Inverse folding.
């Protein structure tokens, strides 16, 4: 079995301190889309490609202003016969396994930058240059409709390590041409990553009254989601998703975070070549 993408990493969208790209809102659609893209093996020289448009919004945002955000962005997923894939314009990876029920390989993921003067509430935080992250994924199938997902990455900005593990379960044929995919996951990172994303340096001379905060290693979020895939024809499909995240204590206690949870809603129309 093959999926068009590995476990993608929800902590980037949840971080209130990173200058967020609207593309990351579209990740909520990816599990259902990837479920449709699964193939036994692509013939030599062939390509499995999805393109489309999606609209997404974050509700109960963790941003300091507490407002949700919306965006409309292109959606792209491609996998080639040699195992190379692109997921949502942000992740480039390679499937290495030829064993049924097992997927693994490396990936390279783009990152957004962040500068303390980008917007209100970033005073005392670290600059993030936006260098890409390098990592590896391993997915293991528990039968035809469920899989365990995991990914380990090196944060080239913080020079630290992060991890995401999850479980996905698909329910097919509830109605003709409709599939539901449920997901549950955990994201964690070491101290270097957490301090860069959520830490605050209290500098009384530059930032009077600013509360310093040193984030610690550990759980960054618990994530759950539901994806609804409606196959309109052999080529056209609609993907709708709702994802919810609850921040870990080290994240929720940061003075840069105004809420302890966030909900993302997205829907998109895709065409499969």
């Amino acid at each position: 079995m093959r999926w068009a993408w590995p476990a993608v990493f929800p902590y980037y969208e949840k971080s209130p301190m990173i200058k967020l790209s609207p593309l990351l809102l579209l990740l909520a659609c990816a599990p259902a889309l990837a479920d449709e893209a699964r193939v036994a093996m692509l013939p030599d020289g062939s390509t499995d490609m999805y393109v489309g448009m999606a609209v997404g919004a974050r509700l109960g945002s963790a941003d300091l202003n507490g407002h949700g955000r919306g965006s409309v962005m292109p959606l792209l997923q491609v996998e080639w016969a040699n195992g190379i894939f692109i997921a949502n314009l942000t992740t480039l990876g390679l499937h290495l396994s030829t064993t049924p029920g097992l997927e693994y390989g490396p990936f390279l993921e783009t990152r957004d930058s962040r500068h303390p003067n980008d917007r209100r509430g970033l005073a005392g935080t670290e600059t993030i240059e936006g260098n890409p992250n390098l990592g590896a994924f391993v997915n293991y199938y528990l039968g035809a409709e469920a899989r365990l997902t995991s990914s380990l990455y090196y944060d080239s900005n913080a020079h630290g390590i992060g991890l995401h593990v999850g479980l996905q379960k698909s329910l097919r044929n509830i109605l003709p041409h409709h599939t539901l995919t449920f997901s549950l996951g955990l994201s964690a990172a070491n101290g270097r990553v957490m301090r860069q994303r959520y830490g605050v340096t209290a500098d009384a001379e530059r930032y009077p009254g600013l509360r310093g905060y040193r984030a610690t290693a550990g759980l960054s979020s618990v994530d759950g989601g539901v994806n609804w895939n409606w196959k309109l024809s052999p080529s056209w499909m609609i993907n709708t998703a709702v994802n919810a995240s609850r921040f870990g204590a080290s994240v929720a206690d940061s003075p840069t975070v105004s809420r302890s949870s966030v909900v993302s809603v997205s829907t998109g129309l895709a065409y499969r070549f």
